[in-house]
Amino acid sequence: MSRFTNLKPRERILAFICTLLVCVLCAHIFLIQPAEQAHSYASSLLVQLREDDAIHESSYKQALHSTTTLQSQQSQVLTELIQANTSLHSILHEIYAQGHNAFESLDSILTLSEDNRLTLQDIKIANEQLGIISLKGSGAFEDIARFIDGIENLHKQYISLDFVHIALQDTLEFEFLIQDMRI
């Protein structure tokens, strides 16, 4: 302090200004620059997080849309299966209501087609007097072959496979005429 008091007023002002500049420089180096770097880093992280959030939101919306589409397709298939099941039951009721018992093995045939993963599109009575049922559908060749073998093994129920027609359209399609031989 004694040196400071010996200085002239102009030298005191110059020393004060130098001390002030050193304090400002130290404050800038130790306080302001780290805060600016932290702010810059935080800003870049925020931008990256917003980009990631936009990407995840887009992926979520796409997944939700595909799930919704899949659910609607499954609902449509389920509705079609319910309608097909209803029509099969109505055909069975028509057959059993006739009282001839000519088609009592139809349950075995339908179970056999389900076991062999065949898709039946049409089941109708081709000739009521002769006890002939017409089955139309599609499936894989191995499944159709197992179905034919299964029909032939229903001999104890007096079932005869009278006509087989297999054609390749979009899928492998078949038509069978099955006769109950007890009539």
**Any low-confidence stretches, pLDDT <50, length ≥5?**
none
> What is the overall silhouette?
rod-shaped
- Name the helix and strand elements from N-terminus to C-terminus, one letter apiece: HHHEEHEE
- Oligomeric state: single chain
Overall average residue pLDDT: 83
Number of strands: 4
Enumerate the strands of the largest sheet in spatial order, edge to edge or round the barrel: 1-2-4-3
Beginning-to-end CA distance, first to last residue: 133 Å
Radius of gyration: 43 Å
DSSP helix fraction: 55-70%
Helical run tally? 4
What does this structure look like?
This protein is an alpha+beta fold and 183 residues long. The protein is built from 4 helices and 4 strands; from the N terminus they run αααββαββ. Strand 1 (119-127) and strand 2 form a beta hairpin. The mean pLDDT is 83.
Name the features.
alpha+beta, 4 strands
Write a compact overview of the structure shown:
The chain is of the alpha+beta class and 183 residues long. The chain contains 4 helices and 4 strands.
